[in-house]
Give the backbone structure.
Amino acid sequence: MGLLSPQSYAWSIGEEARKEGANVQYTVQDEQTVKRTARNFRNQGIPLDETQLLPCDVTKGEDIDKLVADIKSPLDGMLYSIAYVNPKTALGVPLWETPVEDVLHGFHASAIGLVSVIGGLVRAEKFNPNASVVAMTFDSRRAYPNYGWMGPIKGALEGINRYLAMELGPE
């Protein structure tokens, strides 16, 4: 989840999984992004079929429901590589200057969305036994200049990962 370009972690990890025999499906934010992403890959000489791209805005329940319904085979794994804050208001500025709406949207897309997607997939029994979920994070133990709200949001994602592991691990 979270493909943007051939330079994104989602692409690199997906390609390595594909080389090992995995059937890889990518998600992008919406239908417009499907077309733009496929065109971007083609322009860089990388064949990427639009059918490999599923739209899913993780801040919208109806998108998650559609994604879950579109997944026909149980998953052996899932990568959550979504990180977003408004770069104009939430990066490189003091935390208190970011509008609350932008902070909440960043938390929703970058951390809470993981819970929403996993919840939908678990309820629909779309994971194989022993499936793995990997969520991309960044060292939140220290503060980084200009990283703004992404630091606290990635810290929240790390906490969410621990709770999901506790809740799903025994299954």
